[in-house]
């Protein structure tokens, strides 16, 4: 049987051809496959590079931004000569240099409810390489409505996550974990919190691996599982995910029936805390108070975050549930509230003070600061 690949392609993909799980047939699947990369930044850079190198025949890249010097610490698609250029133009040129046999489509527009379906409909796989909740929910929703897998990745500081959301294949969607987006300012962006430059390279490569496996139809995908990476401890942890029968998108009685920009209201904005009106305790101060048993800890993060780490014996009420459950919190105790970084806990402290709680403060720096406080024997996540 004659090969459908040219002699240069036979040389290029030689290491794939020798893999029994890939071979000529698998490489042809890759060449006939199409992937939409939503974002050409930290995650989109390694993702697009390896998809092109692997021979995925059609790669779409959607990103309205231009290259800034602050991007170059982690966004390896771009270089000094690309400063000021559209990221999609820089990405297209780089991918063509990596592999001239692939087709690159570019979309210099923000991925939103008005264009998401039209952009995504012709691609086999959608990959979320974004850094904001608005697009994260939108990519999840459009993938669900089109019956396509959504390869998810996220990064913050030294930690990253990867999963595959594919309700059409029996797995959960992103909204099964987080039904509603956080309010503006509750979660800091990478610009506010920082990110280790190599981290998106690791997470983006994991997304590329899941994408290639999905196209080839080999191995076990991360559908129904989530991988969490902590690079400071160089520790991978796996969590099993389940579909939520009450999910507003893919549940038994969905309330979301079409794409909408309602999720765009969750766009991350710079936090504006008022330190003078939010009392704080440093990690050492909290450790001392816990040793005396004189405080009640209140964790206002989401349940999934609590699975990753928590301070033992803390009460758990997510911030969004606090108004309805505030009566569960005793008023005769000294209360210290904590979240991941201190943004949501500050909001919770204000709510409790307004409700008449006399002695409320927050953990300065949140769980990140607590876990970095090596002097405290309690500073280890469970």
Helix content: 25-40%
Distance between the termini: 58 Å
Total helical elements: 15
SSE ordering:
HHHEHEHEHEHEEHHHEEEHEHEHEHEH
Q: Mean of the pLDDT scores?
A: 89
Radius of gyration: 23 Å
How are the secondary structure elements laid out?
Layout: H1 7-12, H2 14-17, H3 23-32, E1 34-38, H4 44-54, E2 58-62, H5 87-98, E3 103-107, H6 116-120, E4 125-128, H7 133-146, E5 150-156, E6 159-165, H8 174-177, H9 190-193, H10 199-216, E7 225-230, E8 235-240, E9 280-281, H11 283-292, E10 296-299, H12 303-308, E11 315-316, H13 322-325, E12 335-338, H14 343-354, E13 360-363, H15 366-372
Parallel strand pairs: 1-2, 1-4, 2-3, 4-5, 9-13, 10-11, 10-12, 12-13
Antiparallel strand pairs: 5-6, 6-7, 7-8
Helix pairs in contact: 4-5, 4-10
Please provide a written account of the structure:
The protein has 382 residues and is α/β, with parallel strands linked by helices. 33% of the residues lie in helices and 16% in strands. It has an 8-stranded mixed β-sheet with strand order 3-2-1-4-5-6-7-8, with helices on both faces. Strands 9-13-12-10-11 form a 5-stranded parallel β-sheet. β7 and β8 form a beta hairpin. α4 (44-54) packs parallel to α5 and α4 runs parallel beside α10. The radius of gyration is 23 Å and the shape is elongated.
């Amino acid at each position: 049987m004659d090969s459908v690949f040219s002699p240069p392609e036979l040389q290029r993909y030689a290491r794939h051809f020798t893999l029994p799980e890939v071979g000529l047939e698998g490489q042809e699947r890759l060449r006939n496959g199409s992937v939409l990369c939503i974002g050409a930044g930290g995650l989109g850079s390694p993702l697009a590079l390896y998809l092109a190198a692997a021979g995925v025949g059609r790669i779409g890249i959607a990103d309205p931004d231009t290259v800034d010097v602050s991007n170059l610490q982690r966004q390896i698609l771009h270089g000094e000569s690309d400063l000021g250029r559209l990221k999609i133009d820089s990405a297209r040129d780089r991918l063509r240099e990596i592999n001239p046999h692939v087709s690159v489509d570019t979309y210099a527009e923000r991925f939103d409810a008005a264009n998401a379906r039209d952009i995504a409909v012709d691609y086999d796989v959608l990959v979320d390489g974004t850094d904001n909740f608005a697009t994260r929910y939108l990519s999840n929703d459009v993938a669900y409505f089109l019956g396509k897998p959504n390869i998810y990745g996220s990064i913050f500081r030294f930690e990253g996550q990867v999963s595959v959301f594919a309700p059409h294949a029996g797995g959960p969607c992103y909204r099964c974990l987080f039904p509603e987006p956080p309010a503006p300012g509750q979660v800091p962006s990478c610009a506010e919190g920082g990110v280790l430059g190599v981290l998106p390279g690791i997470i983006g490569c994991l997304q590329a691996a899941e994408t290639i496996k999905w196209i080839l139809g080999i191995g076990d995908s991360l559908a129904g599982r989530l991988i969490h990476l902590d690079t400071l401890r160089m520790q991978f942890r796996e969590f099993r995910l389940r579909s939520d029968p009450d999910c507003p998108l893919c549940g038994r009685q969905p309330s979301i029936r079409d794409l909408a920009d309602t999720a765009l209201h969750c766009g991350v904005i710079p936090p504006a805390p008022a330190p003078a009106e939010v009392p704080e305790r440093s990690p050492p101060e909290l450790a001392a108070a816990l040793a005396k048993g004189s405080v009640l800890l209140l964790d206002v993060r989401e349940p999934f975050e609590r699975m990753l780490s928590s301070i033992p014996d803390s009460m758990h009420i997510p911030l969004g549930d606090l108004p309805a459950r505030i009566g569960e919190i005793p008023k005769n105790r000294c209360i210290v509230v904590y979240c991941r970084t201190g943004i949501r806990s500050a909001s919770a402290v204000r709510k409790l003070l307004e409700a008449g709680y006399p002695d409320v403060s927050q953990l300065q720096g949140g769980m990140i600061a607590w876990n970095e406080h090596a002097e405290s024997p309690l500073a280890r996540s469970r």
